[in-house]
Amino acid sequence: MRIAVIALGKIGLPLAAQFAERGHEVTGVDVNSDLVAQVNDGHEPFPGEAGLQERLDRLVPSGRLRATTDYAQAVPEADAVVVVVPLVVDNETWEPDFGWMDAATRSLAQHLTPGTLVSYETTLPVGTTRTRWKPMLEVGSGLVEGEDFDLVFSPERVLSGRIFADLRRYPKLIGALGDRGAARAREFYEAVLEFDHRDDLPRANGVWDLGSAEAAEFAKLAETTYRDVNIGLANEFALFADQVGVDVYGIIEACNSQPYSHIHRPGIAVGGHCIPVYPRLYLATDPDADIVRTARILNAAMPSRTVAQAASILGDLDGLTSVVLGAAYRGGVKETAFSGVFSTVEALRERGARVLVHDPLYSDDELRALGWEPYRPGDAVDLAVLQADHAEYRSLTPADLPGVRLLVDGRNVTDAALWKGVPRLLVGGGGVR
């Protein structure tokens, strides 16, 4: 098949490589000319995705994968077009901003030709595929969905760093606007993906047709919103555990020994492209979902509440030197999307602390470009707040942070035995230990 992938970001480029690896001719489209040049040179634009560079080494020289900024070079006569353009959510109003996706859809429509399957993989509010993309594509192309082209929603369900493994492990959900589109979507994804055998699923791993675009949109929002709500509950338990002086981690372990309990881990922040964002997309179409809203508000407040706990222990943060350990939103991933570092730094500054930031994945210049003063290991600090669970921090000791008066371990990854003699605060650990 000839396949076009619209947007070559951290999801789109691995998808394009996956499709090409299965023997298809793939052209990726991106507005970033520097990224396009890197792909065409066979260079991974964002190191850290397992297996991506090896695939680029094979696929770009063979001609099976190329990139362009021009829709006219990718979309006409394509058998399938897969759209993975980011959907922005306003951090203040929580309203989705479709600007980038609208622009991409209009450009796609201008070059759409009969016989094409169009699949949106970007997570969307329920109803978007039918009520927004269908009319926009029809008006822009002069074609009719279900007759001249077919439209489907099929959410990406992968995590950065392990995308190729996740593509094999998880069922591929599809939801079309009609029977013909559903059949074509199944045929397409079965031709570009392979699936691991899994005994734990209620049916065979593979392409799962949910019956409508709305059902597929809902499924993606539900699975990620569940995680945010569950973490919110874990954080609620953690805050109460600190009040009564018990260790919430032992409690959660005990609860989860019973098969009907699946409590997640509490922590200083919930970051990334997915969990902080998708509950807001869900609320965009179900504004009465009070449980979802409450969990999102609580999770967003955890950095400031954790810093407040630190201030209550030290008495006052004004004039103290603090270091936030971890700019990334999670360990081992060089990405700051909705990372808790932003709120943690802000909360510390609001209390008068001098704030430094450290991350083993980022250079000092990269941290400065993000607006932070880098911490140099070995320099004296009063307070350390561990925000990202990088493996490098598991063996952290007071000697690594000369003069430290309090460690706030927001991810429960440090070794208590290494911190004897220095106060150590866990989120939900029952107080200073």
What features would you describe in this structure?
- With 433 residues, the chain is α/β, with parallel strands linked by helices.
- The protein has 13 helices and 16 strands.
- It has helices at 12-21, 33-40, 52-62, 99-111, 128-141, 163-169, 179-192, 213-244, 248-255, 278-285, 290-314, 340-350, 364-369, and strands at 2-6, 25-29, 65-68, 80-83, 88-89, 96-97, 117-120, 150-153, 172-176, 207-209, 321-325, 354-358, 373-374, 383-386, 406-409, 424-426.
- It has an eight-stranded mixed β-sheet with strand order 3-2-1-4-7-8-9-10, with helices on both faces. The protein has a six-stranded parallel β-sheet with strand order 13-12-11-14-15-16.
- Strand 12 (354-358), helix 13 (364-369) and strand 13 (373-374) form a beta-alpha-beta unit.
- Helix 8 packs parallel to helix 11 (290-314).
- The longest helix has 32 residues, at 213-244.
- The protein is globular and about 70 Å long.
- 46% of the residues are buried.
- The model has no long low-confidence stretch (mean pLDDT 96).
